[in-house]
Amino acid sequence: xxxxxxxxxxxxxQVFKCNIRWKxxxxxxxxxxxxxxxxxxxxxxxxxxxxxxxxxxxxxxxCMSRPGAGGYFMKMYxxxxxxxxxxxxxxxxxxxxxxxxxxxxxxxxxxxxxQSAFKxxxxxxxxxxxLLENVVAVAEKVDDYQCADFITSVYLAEQMASINELSHHVxxxxxxxxxxxxxxxxxxxxxxxxxxxxxxxxxxx
Length: 205
Description:
The protein is mainly alpha-helical. It has one domain: Ferritin, CATH 1.20.1260.10. About 75% of the residues lie in helices and about 0% in strands. Helix 2 runs antiparallel to helix 3, helix 2 runs antiparallel to helix 4 and helix 3 crosses helix 6. It is elongated and about 60 Å long. About 10% of the residues have low confidence. Stores iron in a soluble, non-toxic, readily available form. Important for iron homeostasis. Iron is taken up in the ferrous form and deposited as ferric hydroxides after oxidation. GO terms for molecular function: ferric iron binding; ferrous iron binding; ferroxidase activity.
């Protein structure tokens, strides 16, 4: 009995050592804390993409018919997907375990306006930026300067640009004071830059 137990412990120790060697083999100074915040950032980008998609499809629906806004938020959706994919690629390069978590259902209502959508988008971008800044802080704490540089150079500049862009849209919407004709014209201007991404035709405006 004791011999069997001793043999079992020896085998477990060998497997444990083997796993440690395997982990060191494909990772270089990749702290678990950094790996964890990268996974949280992947989830945040995925959540933002889903929320933008929900807004885009609402504006493209016949009951709202704001094709310019729909195209704009589809652009934001694609950007968040691209950010998520880059983070997944980074996690793979560093040898981290990728955790794809469940998402919260978007909280949208039929009273969504262009003004409230831009404000929601601005809030989302600020939240994502704060999470990215936290990734940099965690990476610098464990001397992972490569990760800190990656997030700073690839993501933070884009985030500042997105925050600035959405801030301008919020300001412009506030100036329009909900005037339906003015909002209609604003959507027309958006449509010129962000055409309907889907194949179905919408009425000419």
